[in-house]
Design a protein that fits this description.
Arc Repressor Mutant, subunit A, 228 residues, DNA-binding, homodimer
Amino acid sequence: MTPPRDALSHDRVLQAALALADAHGLDALSMRRLGAELGVEAMSLYRHVPNKEALLDAMVDAIVRSWIDAGDAASTDWRDRLGAIMHRAHATMLARPWSVELITVRPRVGEGRLRYAEAVTTALLEAGFTPQLAHHGLHIVDGTIMGFTAQQARRPTAVALGDRVQALADGSLAHEYPGISRTIREHHDHDEEYALMVDLVIEGLARLRDGEAPRRTGLGANYALAIS
Amino acid sequence: MTPPRDALSHDRVLQAALALADAHGLDALSMRRLGAELGVEAMSLYRHVPNKEALLDAMVDAIVRSWIDAGDAASTDWRDRLGAIMHRAHATMLARPWSVELITVRPRVGEGRLRYAEAVTTALLEAGFTPQLAHHGLHIVDGTIMGFTAQQARRPTAVALGDRVQALADGSLAHEYPGISRTIREHHDHDEEYALMVDLVIEGLARLRDGEAPRRTGLGANYALAIS
DNA sequence: ACCTGAACACCGTTCAAGT
DNA sequence: ACCTGAACACCGTTCAAGT
């Protein structure tokens, strides 16, 4: 148990945490185990990281930072700029499925997240969006990235676990769920489907910029909030 | 310590868990505390629920089930049917912020989730979508609901915690982040913004159905996956 | 049949103590 | 200055024991 044992540092702790989550998932990431992985007692980590929450925030920020690329701003087409970011985000999250829940849910805003928000916002402003619309646009892009990716990250496990999902696939629930029984076996490729949604959203943003408000969807008479 | 002490049941445990999360957040929901809330030892709960995971899944399913309403199918306009579901989902999740991370991330598919998927899929099929497109449509609707809501649920806390977010708002980071410094103070209402995204997505789906493929976004030369 | 008490194998984090 | 050991206040879950 005598590895080189270089001095600990915030970055070494962060990298080890990412590696541990990559190798064994988020549940395996305990301060005790992370310490062990670094050849150190858990308590030593607290010299470099205030607490576990802060470590998780740092992990999120490191990943979100990788969504943007210095080259993005070079592209003159705002659609391509947004598309590149959205696809990069999707790919990095699916490559690290454990990261999805962290990124989607943690509220703390770090530098990486700010830079990503800045890149998206700037692309929109330079494309002629009003500040108001650019603000909405950022949220729409952000929501699309998170929601669609979370949904795809959820799927494989759902199928694996799926008692009923399996039954749906072989049609034995066609009586109760005729709709999904008909569609569930449609072939689809995650990346292609995401590309479709990205294009749909970007097209919608372009129309908003050009002043074409989408048709207003009526909420219907029975739009009521049902809590417990 | 002698409340009526009706016999425990799966449903009583579930309702108490929802109430506990509503009152004190998800972190407060431990089997021990939940037992205490029901006037019972934690271990008694295991007679009605296999484990905590299953309890969380049941909570998710109870909430998702409330997204659909028997009256939805009565509406002949598929846009209104989808819109009603999407708005109901958004409202119920924002009313229970702790539920967002559970619903967005947990893969297990229960009956509530199936009924919701069935309602969305049927609305699309009846509106003339091909099974293939209806399948994509469900995922697009699902991603929109989850992502946008998660993003809005994240925001208030972000602002509250925000060291840098605060600095952005008063303009002192305008040099480093010119784009967001310009847009961050744009007024926006959560519900209105969500309605905008819902309309945008439904409009996009309508165009897909009508065979108008959205313009393909080029990914650019620098679309590369960056891991660690 | 239903509930309990003690126990097991974990957590994150504190703090005084070691080098 | 940097790391540690023991301890604190928790977890989810098991299992034999009680009524």
